[in-house]
UniProtKB/TrEMBL annotation:
<protein>
    <submittedName>
        <fullName>Uncharacterized protein</fullName>
    </submittedName>
</protein>
Length: 144
């Protein structure tokens, strides 16, 4: 599965079922985590590798890039608002003590587009976590 950049507003279509959404242990920094899912359009098995260098801050989607609203993120349970004590990590949170991140990718076969939202890091001393909020099939709105 190829990671891509998207610059037009997006519409969330449906959330893809995942067999595993939480990964823990020291090896996640060494090898990353492999998120596997099936494309709902062509039924091709896809995977995305997430490591500590993957993803951008989720709030960039509505503050800087203006691809989706904060209201849509909250309504679709992609993330929740950070409690005041964690605001230094950003306005949104997926897993306690970790920033909310996202990446875009496309299907290996039909090129359907997906957004994966997640948190990655050391949530407590010696507790390394990658928590996947979800993978959504998305449509890009052509603004031209």
């Amino acid at each position: 599965m190829k990671k891509i950049d998207i610059n037009n507003p997006i519409i969330l279509k449906n959330k893809i079922a995942l067999s595993t959404n939480i990964f823990e242990g020291s090896t996640i920094y060494e090898y990353g985590v492999e998120v596997k899912f099936k494309c709902p359009i062509c039924q091709t098995n896809n995977n995305v590798i997430i490591d500590d260098n993957t993803g951008n801050l989720l709030e960039d989607l509505y503050i800087r890039k203006k691809l989706i609203t904060k209201k849509e993120i909250l309504k679709n349970n992609i993330a929740k608002e950070s409690p005041h004590i964690y605001r230094h990590l950003g306005e949104l949170m997926i897993f306690q003590n970790l920033s909310a991140l996202y990446l875009f990718s496309k299907c290996n076969n039909c090129e359907a587009k997906f957004m994966t939202s997640f948190s990655f890091g050391e949530s407590q001393p010696s507790r390394n976590v990658c928590y996947i909020s979800g993978v959504w099939l998305i449509d890009e709105i052509n603004t031209v």
